[in-house]
């Protein structure tokens, strides 16, 4: 005969609240008509009730669904001869959890395998790929060891990491047995991955053997000969980890390493998770979907117990800030796909990372596989609509490895091409020159060295780095001059802080490729999204009004507006430098057609070459740029004033060559060759036997003698006065003009000289 179920033990009223789940659980057995509960369950229920009666708290031993019911208890617990140290059916906390959380198990909807654990790069040795979709459940501040084998007869001993890694670079130690034996007789060697590296040899195994950077290892004997020659272990360590100081979490750690139960209380869902979609907790009967948190984690409290070094409010501290409200401005927006915490509506670690079952399988535990999409859910800097050239999944940046002061290793996973992580590391990267400090702005290198890494001829096609070693170049190598937030401040570009860093002219988050050749003054797509200064001309010369336009300004960029940041009176210019906004002023009497087409639009088209005409507008970079014709832009040149070709300004009488800069647009035979056909020379309004061909070709006075290459506020034809030799003054009439030179000038005794216009204006 089956024995009747006994009535529940009496529980004092003062403790019934803590034991109500135990009593209700017992009643379920009785109400289901089961005459006898399984003996272990019956014993456990009596023990629980008695413990409550004695006043011990049982919040951690509640039975919330789906871990409720007799079958769930029996799945994990056994009363006698249990292989697990806490009366569990399986030895090892993680093994116990995986016994159900596996394909075909009771919790097959949420399966785990040891290989799911995060193994992120960098810091991995050759041949080991980054992997994993879940937070580790076998690691701690001293990392985790992986047995590699190597000997014919595998070692039975084990290696345990201890301490707390204090290094600045994640790395992997390789521990190899050199002499066979048990603890105290076997010896080992070790090496570690770069950049911090490290080696040790012929070290005696023991209970606490230091390696370096705060890490030691304990060798534990197995059976027979514990350690065999050539057997090896990998010990993977990560940065910015510390041992929790919370007693509740510490109690669930083994030898300083976490287990599943460190973060999860398998019996109760009462603690609040981060998950903004998790339901409330009205009681154990309705506790589904709250992740069995051991502590409240609604603002990532548990995450920050171990990852406290990354609990920073500013990127200046070397890590992406957390615990902040996401601002809404030109640079940031409220995320659409990423969750903020439901308690304070702030960005947390769990906004970007998913502790288990992350879509990213590279150990980063990111909530999206597309890193650009993840970052741009909050950051508006990246143009993902066009998209920007650097973010292209086919031709975008793929970090080739640091070469100019950075130790950040190459990214070889082509799936990460165009990802933000090629140039930025969300948790910082140490400056090799001072590893206790990270590179600014969470970059993997500093300023121009970051750009040089790709733009030195490989992998980018053109070698811009070499251009910046030429005699005349834009001043990019001025550390610390360019700073975030300088936009709109004229003094940031003038006086002692003048600079032209790569990021002053190029917005790497927005620049693109030109689908078609742009037409001046509209800039190339490579200048998209830059700070600039537009000008309103109120009168000739420097009668100007400036408007600063930030990178976020949606109006199309005009190339000269970018140049005006430094080369106009908007800022403080060096002594002797021209105000080019005043020179190109369209209210001047004459000017080179940079801001708009020139005033003399009926010049004979045959006076031009290379497709130019009197109605064209031009770029500053049509004259100023690399002397290497394959490279666009004013990066570096052998010629003064950063010109593409020679244009001497020394006022020395000399013959001009057809290869000089002016003749990229103006026909050489028309303006500088007195032996040319008279018809060709007559294409110039100052043609004929004593015109341009005579002055430049025979008298050998170069263009610079009489003309200002940028503009002339009060003179026609960009004529300049006051140079020696040169023109003292110039008077223009409808069909002719007079000029006078100094006594050491072109005309003898400073006499007036008249010329006749060869065709009407």
Structure report:
The chain starts with 15 loop residues before the first helix and ends in a 5-residue tail after the last strand. A five-stranded antiparallel beta sheet has the order 1-8-3-4-5, with no helix packed on it. Strands 2-7-6 form a three-stranded antiparallel beta sheet, with no helix packed on it. Strands 17-18-19 form a three-stranded antiparallel beta sheet, with no helix packed on it. Residues 1-42 and 44-60 have low confidence and may be disordered. The chain is largely without helices or strands. It is built from 17 helices and 19 strands. α1 (16-31) runs antiparallel to α2. The protein has helices at 16-31, 39-53, 70-76, 93-100, 247-250, 260-263, 301-306, 349-352, 371-375, 447-452, 464-467, 502-505, 559-563, 580-583, 668-671, 678-681, 692-698, and strands at residues 144-149, 158-163, 171-179, 187-192, 199-204, 209-210, 215-220, 232-237, 430-431, 434-438, 472-473, 532-537, 544-549, 590-591, 636-637, 711-712, 727-732, 736-741, 753-756. Among the domains are: 13-100, no CATH class; 116-237, no CATH class; 307-461, no CATH class; 487-635, no CATH class.
Helix and strand arrangement:
Blueprint: H1 16-31, H2 39-53, H3 70-76, H4 93-100, E1 144-149, E2 158-163, E3 171-179, E4 187-192, E5 199-204, E6 209-210, E7 215-220, E8 232-237, H5 247-250, H6 260-263, H7 301-306, H8 349-352, H9 371-375, E9 430-431, E10 434-438, H10 447-452, H11 464-467, E11 472-473, H12 502-505, E12 532-537, E13 544-549, H13 559-563, H14 580-583, E14 590-591, E15 636-637, H15 668-671, H16 678-681, H17 692-698, E16 711-712, E17 727-732, E18 736-741, E19 753-756
Antiparallel strand pairs: 1-8, 2-7, 3-4, 3-8, 4-5, 6-7, 9-10, 11-15, 12-13, 14-16, 17-18, 18-19
